[in-house]
Amino acid sequence: MPTHRGPWLLVVDIGIPLALYYGLKALGASDLTALLVGVIPGLISSAVSLVRTRRTDLVGMAVVISMVASSVIAVAGGDARLLLVRNAWISLPFAGITLWSLRHPQPLTYVVTRSMFAPRAALMDELWESDERFRNAWKWITVWWGIATIVDGVVRIGVSYTLPISVVPATDPVITIVTIVVLQVPTTVLLRRSGTWHRVFAPRRPTVG
After folding, report:
1. Which residue among 109, 111, 130, 188 is buried most deeply as judged by most CB within 10 Å?
2. Whole-structure pTM over 0.85, yes or no?
3. Distance between CA atoms of 97 and 107, rounded to whole angstroms?
């Protein structure tokens, strides 16, 4: 789903860690050392984001915990690949939580989207109560996001343990982008078929007169 971090995600969480990893490798650093240093920008970025928003960001907290835990385990085990799979530690639990939310009155994708579009929250609540197609759209979007995130996590684990260590960091952002792009198809189709896109997310045209 969308993130409030915007372009900084590409620069701080992807660009800088990759530059640090391959730069340090060129200088003769070990894979584990280069990967550990590459974690630092992401930790700083997540910490700053949590402080600036002054609220509990579950995704941000999960990222921080994953980075710290995977770093500690990788150092203790001396295995760089344990650090490479850290994003799978986020994807798989997130998939479980996403699918489990279908048992609750409102699924996770709806709750998160509603919080991101606060000015339209009242309209979304009204549609949730009155429109069955609206509710079903969000339930199916949640199913797709849950399944896709499971695939994302499994692919990350497979890539981390089958490809050469030096190749894996470059594949990580590719997997992220592919997952997000692929998920836009069922998400957009379901929103448009239910009329949600037009009623909630389409740009408002200025009224005349």
Report:
1. 109
2. no
3. 10
Q: In 10 A of CB 25, how many CB atoms?
A: 17
As a whole number of angstroms, the distance between CA 69 and CA 75 comes to 10
Give the residue from 132, 148, 129 showing the smallest Cα distance to 187.
148
Contact yes or no for 85/156 (Cβ under 8 A): yes
Q: Where are the domains of the chain?
A: 1-80, 85-202
Asked if residues 146 and 95 have their Cβ atoms less than 8 Å apart, the reply is yes
**Nearest Cα to 160, choosing from 96, 79, 69, 94?**
79
